[in-house]
């Protein structure tokens, strides 16, 4: 085998190896691109869930705006990797939704916490959101002070949701006329505040529920007094009727004796 043949064979083999390496690198790049798109799409779904499923009372305006901005940023990352008209429209619609929310002065309606299953679901969502906050801080998409504030907020809400649930039960009992149960539920709501009593928002809740309990107890005492008065008046009326009946019987007997 001549040197030229050997050289050609080496070049062919080298070319084949280089071609195989290039193909492998392209495949790795393609897989990495797909993995990145999948990861970003998961982030989109995750953030959308926070936006949609966190009740308004547990989602301050600045936090919601941050979630909007994060979701838009994720869309932008996807569009760099994979330009797509549909994704671009979704991104623009989201930006419009964010602008509308930012300029809207109307307060969002509070969602009633009226079910134990809902309580457990939201507690899991709070825990998930705390992890998302930590990850965002690590990725430097959220500054440390804000991350600390949001984390404390989620810790507070994780307990407050039990407070809100018992407060809902108390209001429902009150509207149903079951005052004793209403008082018990308000007292339980106060007891649920104990783990978060160091938070500034806790004391006004305790005062509010104590005032409500006092008002209900005052109403119950007044109602009981009115019932006692009515019962007393009814008793007096019955005594007067008995006296009149006795007089009637006596008069009738006397008349009979007179005729006899």
Walkthrough of the structure:
Residues 233-245 have a biased composition (Acidic residues). The chain crosses the membrane at residues 6-25. Keywords: Membrane, Transmembrane, Transmembrane helix. Residues 227-248 are annotated as: Disordered. 84% of the residues lie in helices and 0% in strands. It has 260 residues and is mostly helical.
Largest sheet: none
**Tally of helical segments:** 7
What radius of gyration results from the CA coordinates?
37 Å
Instruction: Please count the beta strands (DSSP E, at least 2 residues each).
Output: 0
Separation of the first and last Cα atoms: 164 Å
H-E order: HHHHHHH
Helix fraction, binned, reads: over 70%
Oligomer status: single chain
What is the overall silhouette? elongated
In percent, how much strand structure appears in the residues? under 5%
Residue stretches low in confidence (pLDDT < 50, at least 5 long) are 253-260
Mean pLDDT: 85
State the secondary-structure class: mainly alpha
Transmembrane segments: 6-25
Region (Disordered): 227-248
Biased composition (Acidic residues): 233-245
Keywords: Membrane, Transmembrane, Transmembrane helix
